[in-house]
Amino acid sequence: MTSPLEQKKIRITGPSVVTANRTWDGAVVYRTAKHGWSTELSDSAIVTTSDEARALLAEATADDLGAVGPYIAPVELKDGGKVKPGNLREHIRAKGVTIDLQVPA
Amino acid sequence: MYAYDELDRTLINERVSEFRDQVKRRLSGELTEDEFKILRLQNGVYLQLHAYMFRVAIPYGTLSSKQLRRLAHVARRYDRGYGHFTTRQNIQFNWIKLAELPDALADLAEVGIHAMQTSGNNMRNVTSDQWAGVAPGEIEDPRIWSELIRQHTTLHPEFSFLPRKFKIAITAAEHDRAAIKIHDIGLRLHKNADGETGFEVLVGGGLGRTPFIAKTIKPFVPGRDILSYIEAILRVYNQYGRRDNIYKARIKILVHELGIEKFAKEVEEEWKAMGDVGLTLDHAAIEEVRSRFSYPAYEKLPHMPDELKQAAHDKLFERWRKNSVSPHKVQGYSIVTLSLKPVGGPPGDATAEQMDAVADLADKYSFGEIRVGHEQNLALPHVAKRDLPALFKALDRLGLATPNVNLVTDIIACPGLDYCSLANARSIPIAQELTRRFANHDTADLIGRLHINISGCINACGHHHVGHIGILGVEKNGEEFYQITIGGRADENAQLGTLIGPAVPYAEVADVIEDIVEAYLALRDRPEELFVDTVKRLGVEPIRERVYATR
Lengths: 105, 551
Fold this sequence. Notes:
The complex is a heterodimer. By secondary structure, chain A is α+β, with helices and mostly antiparallel strands. Chain A has helices at residues 50-62, 88-95, and strands spanning 16-22, 28-31, 37-38, 67-77, 83-85. Chain A has one domain (13-95). Chain B folds into four domains: 6-109, Sulfite Reductase Hemoprotein, domain 2, CATH 3.90.480.20; 134-291, Sulfite Reductase Hemoprotein, domain 1, CATH 3.30.413.10; 306-398, Sulfite Reductase Hemoprotein, domain 2, CATH 3.90.480; 412-548, Sulfite Reductase Hemoprotein, domain 1 (2-Layer Sandwich), CATH 3.30.413. In chain B, the strands form four sheets. In chain B, strands 16, 17, 18, 19, 20 and 21 form a six-stranded mixed sheet that branches.
C-alpha cells in the first residue's frame, strides 16, 4: 500500500477523500464538506478531480491544530452512496487491525 | 538491577515536566506539528496509522517487577490493555492519546522508566544480551558498559542531532544473543593476552533498504577507553556522514563508501588527535556503576533437586524445560524464557494481565527481575531449579509456556501494515498463520532451530535479512506480495539471507514456507543439521528448485 509520504505527487484517478490523524488523540479522521473533521468516512467530502483534491488538501493542511499529516486517499462509491476505503491501508485505518488481538478491544 | 541515583531521577522528572509543557503548547496551537514533531520524537512518540505510538525504553532489556507492573498500568489506563515488545528490547503502546502522554510518562518516571532516545536521529537505547550477568562463561556483565555508555550519551548534544539514528549493542558471551553485527556499533567484550578487559569494535552494520554486516575496525580497545573511542567514531560519522539523503545517512553507508580500512584509519587518527578529553574511565568510575547493579543472594542449591526429578515424568513439563530453560552461571539456578509467541497470537504482544502476572512470578521465583530479548520474548533470569515445575504450571495458565523458543513458530515480526504508517504489507497475520501451520510441537521439534523473521516494509524492523527464513512485505499494484530469503542469521556468524525466488502473494506465503521447510527436511544431512547449516552447505538452489518447480 503506497505510503502517503510517497503519494504527494499522485494525481487522483477516482473518487478520493482527505484523511489525517486528530491532533489530541491521533484518531483517524476525514475532512468534511463543512470544513471540519469527522471520524466517520461516510461524513467525508468526496472529490473527483485533482484540482478539487488539492484544494481540499490545502484547506485541511491549514488546520494544523485539528489534525496532523493530511493526505489524499482513494475511496470507492457503492450503490446507495455508501463510501468504502479504496485500498487495504485505508481499510485498516477505517476498520481497525485485521488481526485477532486476543485482548478486549 | 541497576539503581538510579538522584541525578538520574531528576533528569527523568525534568524531562516529564518539559514534555508536559510542550504537549500543552502543541494542543493550544502555540506549536505547529512541524515544530512539535522533533520534540515528540525525542520522547518516543510516533504517529502511526490509528493513533500515536509510544515507545518506552527498557535499557539493556532489564526490568524490575515494579517497573513491569507500571508498564501494565500504562497499557491498561492509557492504551488498550496490551503492549508490544520490540526487536530493540523496548516496549511500544499503540493507542496512546497525545493529551494523556505526559501523565503516562509521569507514571513511568515514578519507577525510573522514560522514553528518551527511543526515536529520533540520536544515540538510541543501548541493547545487550538478555542473559547478561547470568550466562555461563560470560566475560563479565555487559550491562555495566551499556550503562556507562547510556550515561555518557543521554542528551549529549553531539549525539542528539546525528545524520540518522544510531544504535549500539554489546555482548560478552561466546554466543551473540544481542545481534551486534547488525548494529551501527557492535561491541564484543573479551580479554586480551594480558587478561585485560576490552572490546572488539565493529562498525557499519544495519538492515533497512541497504543491509550490511558490521566489520571490525579494532580488535581490542581497553574498557577504560571505550567512551573516547565511540566518540571518535561518532566524530568521523558527524563529519563525513550524509545529511542530504536520508537513505544514505546511516554510518553503514559511510563505512561502505569509504571502505573499512579507510574508515578505521580515520577513526584511529581522530581518536589520537582528540588526546585526553576527560573520557577515560578510571577504575573508580567503572566500579561506581558496577556497584549500582545489584545481584541476587543466591542460595547454595543442588544441581538436580528432587522437585525436578519428580517432574521428569510429566511430558509437557519436560518438553517445555528442554525448550525454554537454559543453564545459569550459578549451580541450582536456571534462566527461563517466556515465549510471547503463542499459536495464533501476535508475536511480542503481552496483555496488562500477563505483565502483572509475570511481575508476580518474578517476585516469587526470580528475585523480582525480568529481561526482554530482541527476539521479542521475556526471560526470568534467576529461577531456582526446584521451582521450575511450579513456574511451568503458572506460566502455562497464563499462555506463556509455549515450548517454541528458537523453533519455527518463535517468529520475529514488526507491527506491519496493521499499525505502521511506513508499512507496505501486513506482518502479524502472516506470522499468525505460520504459527497455526506449525502448531504441532512434535513437528517443530523435528524441524529444530529455525528463525523466521518478517518485515512489512524495507525498513526491516522485523530483521528479515537475518532470519534463517526472511519474509519481506512489498506492494505490487496495490496488492500485498512477499519476498522470501533464506540463509540469513543474526548471531556471531551473522550473514544476510539470499532471495529464493519471485515474490508471492499474501495467500501463498504460508504454503511457500511449508514447502521450504519440507525441502530442508528432505535435504538435510542428518537430523542435527540445522536449517541454516543445510542452506550454507548446499546453497539456495536445491531448495529453490523444490519450492518453485511447480509454481
